[in-house]
Fold:
Amino acid sequence: MARGASARRYAQAVFAIALDQGEPDRWLDDLALLSDAMANEEFANFLDAPQLTLAQKTDLIGETLGDSVSDLARNLISLLASRNSARLLPSITESYQQMLDEHNGVERAEIVAAVPLSNEQQQRIEAMLTGIVGKDITATSRVEPQIIGGFVARVGDKVIDGSTRTRLDELRRELVHGA
Structure:
């Protein structure tokens, strides 16, 4: 089974449990913490080592995570460790986040600007994107100076390109082709 499909299936199961418990946000926090723990290469290698027993892995999970996550979240990482698949956690978390966003009617967006955006600028762009896609928007932003000015926003498969670089490229094409 492909690892991406496997991660989605785990995420679907976790999402169903989270909805049944009425704690989808708590589960997202737990999954994020588990994914962060997997960033520690030693910890990840230990959990996915086939030569170690489940008891050894479970002991390390308990020592490392303590009470920072729910019992069910600890059970999830233990199950993944028993299958030498703990490295799926970041993909599971990403799939879970997508399911939660869809459930809440939220769309994720990425805004790329030439300079850091103020909170007000980001909120104005988010409001504009909300009007375009008809869903609440949660945006992240990053800086790419090569776009010169303006911004490029990506929401799902939509791209809104208001960058100065693109406008200059279009103007150059018009001048070269004599439009």
In short: The mean pLDDT is 91. DSSP finds eight helices and four strands in the chain. The two ends are 53 Å apart (CA to CA).
